[in-house]
Amino acid sequence: MLRAVLLGPPGAGKGTQAAKVIEKYNVPHISTGDIFRANIKEGTELGKKAQGYINEGKLVPDELVVDLVTDRLQQDDCKDGFLLDGFPRTILQAEQLDEFLSKNGQKLDIVLNFKVRKDVLVERISGRRVCKACGASFHVVNVPPKKEGICDRCGGELIQRKDDNRETVENRINVYESETAVLIGYYEKQGVLVDFDGEKSHEEVFADVVKAIEAK
């Protein structure tokens, strides 16, 4: 049984840790992006509403995001817990999540907050390269391909995603910090926030995560 929230800026390694956590604790990984895509694809009422905002280039309002997430949390596979990623993003969303859980006699066990210095994040993300053909990912420093610009797996061309360039990355990190810094204080007050040094190796970070979860 594990009910957890993931916090951390882009490039902090949340995706890697999420994969390890859901495998070890057998809970669903719930990402707001995935929920949006699923609802839009299935043409649900909530999906249609979300699509309307996205088409207009607007942010999906808090209430609708909360409805989409709580709708997902009521599905059978979430009975024994979940790992939330990309939600909550605002205090209002956090309060409404608490309210929803408490109505169902539940509460969050832990909020995993991955901390990485900004310059390290920028290096990590702006060095990412993705294969145009098969989607394999590399990093110019950490996981370089055998031959520059060529995918080891299929020989396809390696490209940098548009939103992985330095300027966009810095902007994404600034947005994250201005949006989510308040959440860190919110969960600290509740005593459920645990900080992790996201600059350690994946294995070391995961060992710390397991230790923190077991302690809770």
From TrEMBL:
Region NMP: start-end pairs: 31-60
Binding site for ATP: G11, A12, G13, K14, G15, T16, R128, S137, F138, K200
Alphabetic keyword roster: ATP-binding, Cytoplasm, Kinase, Metal-binding, Nucleotide biosynthesis, Nucleotide-binding, Transferase, Zinc
Reaction catalysis annotation: AMP + ATP = 2 ADP
GO CC terms: cytoplasm
GO molecular function annotations of the record: AMP kinase activity; ATP binding; zinc ion binding
A GO biological process held by the record: AMP salvage
Top-rank taxon: Bacteria
Region (LID): 127-164
UniProt-annotated binding residues for Zn(2+): C131, C134, C151, C154
NCBIfam families in the cross-refs: adk, PRK00279.1-2, PRK00279.1-3, PRK14527.1
Family: Belongs to the adenylate kinase family.
Domain notes: Consists of three domains, a large central CORE domain and two small peripheral domains, NMPbind and LID, which undergo movements during catalysis. The LID domain closes over the site of phosphoryl transfer upon ATP binding. Assembling and dissambling the active center during each catalytic cycle provides an effective means to prevent ATP hydrolysis. Some bacteria have evolved a zinc-coordinating structure that stabilizes the LID domain.
Function statement: Catalyzes the reversible transfer of the terminal phosphate group between ATP and AMP. Plays an important role in cellular energy homeostasis and in adenine nucleotide metabolism.
Matches recorded under PANTHER family: NUCLEOTIDE KINASE
Family matches, as HAMAP family: Adenylate_kinase_Adk (MF_00235)
Protein name, as recorded: Adenylate kinase
